[in-house]
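Appendix B.2, paired examples.
Example (i):
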Amino acid sequence: MQKRDTVVGHNATLRLLRSALVGRHMPELGRILDVAAFLLGAEFTRDVELPVGSRVDALPPFVDG
């Protein structure tokens, strides 16, 4: 898969980042991001109201947990 960067403004939340990714790049990604967890630095979260930093990792659900 090709790496793509998505830029959002200051004070953007995970919800806004998710919308930008789905709207601009990959509409089918929405189903995965709806159930994904995220790493913001060293913090593991599912709270989409948290502000994003310079890097966000999306972790899709795994079969066994």
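Example (ii):
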Amino acid sequence: MEEQKKKCPFCHIIAGNIPANKVYEDDKVLAILDINPAAKGHVLLIPKEHFPLLAMCPPELFRHLFVKVRDLSKSIEEGLLSQGTQIFIAGGAAAGQQSYHFMIHIIPREEGDGIEVLDLPHKTFPKEKLGELKAAISKNLNIMLGRRFGKIKSEKITKEQIFEIIDKNSQLKNIILNSPDDFKNAVPANPQLKSIFSGFDLDELISEVNEKYGKTVNKKNEKADGNNKSAEKSKERKSKESRKNANNKKNNNKKGSDSDGSNIDLDAISEIL
């Protein structure tokens, strides 16, 4: 997470390292004008603490954010005389999230403005499919609420369900694989993550995730590295052989030339690159 913070442009804006047009600020949040706005007055509301995803944002902070969304939305409508505002969150790459610092978009809207944000298609589903979806959502919601408030009797989430969640969430999978310590720190600090992973040995889970997904990634990388190295060695060998006579002549005619062959190595490297 710390490495992610160092690369996050919004964290740099909050720290004052990157200039921005601030429209509101308090000790918890910052509102700025989007530099690539969908419409005039497009505002981004961000927490000052770095949270990549909605699920990692603490409930208290989330409540504070939406109090400010209400105030900013009203201010934008009155200040710009807009006909309304569109408020949305892009959670995850599949939903259009481009920067992994959680944010809320507030976009002024006018009739016929041509903006197609959330231009949703109208689909129909069989009744039995709707029933399956309702059951799946209700079951998971009961589990989460039961663990958080202790008021709803809920079934214990299984390891198979955990891996299904990880398999469908590439960001969560990457955090577990690449930043396991950040994942372990985030789980007890975030009620939503805590409700999902409560009762599981996180070290054991991390080990199993690496066993299941890490090997596949490593094998792909090893295969690619092996192919690249073989190609590079072949190319380097041919390059050195083809330039052997030319390099000897060059070194004989060159005054003060190094005797360690460094020039030849540099030439070979440049050929490979």
